[in-house]
Amino acid sequence: MKQGKSFFLTGDSGEGKTTLLFQCLKPYQVVTGGFFSQRLVNESGDTVGFRLASAKEEWEPKVCYEDGLTNIFLKRTIEGMVSYPEVFQKEGRQLLTSHGDHKLILMDEIGGVELLIPEFMEAVYACVKGPKPCIGVIKSRNNFAMMMARNGGNPYASHLRDELEESVKMSLHNQLLTYHRKDKEAVREKILKYLREGI
């Protein structure tokens, strides 16, 4: 694997980016470090928050919220969504800097409140530019705009999202694919080829 070679997907919500990624990565979980964002839902299936999960955990992108869950970085309250940046400052940064003998770093997904956490984003850029391959999802510009309209937030984060995407695209060693469900099998082959060659 050439230094800095990374593979990211972007695209609309609900297309199945994370599902496809996890299917392809399953045989490599034991050598994968990093994180994924886990959607927390209530008994009605409504989103009530998000937590930062280690790649070492069971890869479940959506779970029912229960008391005692750790590393929740967004939680719905009567005042609206409340963010907890310390989750990225501490646990998030640690998940990206303490990957030991892992051969691959998972980042699924990047493009929310974490864009405004310098300590965490510094670790993200270090991973993307570092010697170990990275794979994950970058929130699309469209998804980001919808998230901002729904939950509000700092408009400067949009610039930071674009900056990250441009940084990934700048290196000829990196791949950034816009995923559409109709291209699922072609993208699956590209992901598997990337994994076979890199690991």
What distance separates the N and C termini? 8 Å
Low-pLDDT windows of residues: none
Helical/strand content category: alpha/beta
Sheet bearing the most strands, described?
A: 9 strands, mixed
What is the averaged pLDDT score? 88
CATH topology: Rossmann fold
Q: What value does the Rg take, in angstroms?
A: 16 Å
Q: How many structural domains in the coordinates? A: 1
Please work out how many helical segments DSSP would assign.
6
Which overall shape is indicated by the principal axes computed on the Cα atoms? globular
Give a topology summary:
Layout: E1 6-10, H1 17-25, E2 32-41, E3 47-54, E4 62-64, E5 72-77, E6 80-83, H2 86-97, E7 104-110, H3 118-129, E8 134-138, H4 141-151, H5 156-170, E9 175-178, H6 184-198
Parallel strand pairs: 1-8, 1-9, 2-4, 2-7, 7-8
Antiparallel strand pairs: 2-3, 3-5, 5-6
Helix pairs in contact: 1-6, 2-3
Can you describe what's shown?
The structure is a single chain. With 199 residues, this protein is an alpha/beta fold. It has a single domain, classed as P-loop containing nucleotide triphosphate hydrolases (Rossmann fold, 3-Layer(aba) Sandwich). 37% of the residues lie in helices and 26% in strands. Strands 1, 2, 3, 4, 5, 6, 7, 8 and 9 form a nine-stranded mixed sheet that branches. The chain has helices spanning 17-25, 86-97, 118-129, 141-151, 156-170, 184-198; strands at residues 6-10, 32-41, 47-54, 62-64, 72-77, 80-83, 104-110, 134-138, 175-178. Helix 2 (86-97) packs parallel to helix 3. The protein has six helices and nine strands, in the order E-H-E-E-E-E-E-H-E-H-E-H-H-E-H. Helix 3 (118-129) links the parallel strand 7 and strand 8. The termini are close together.
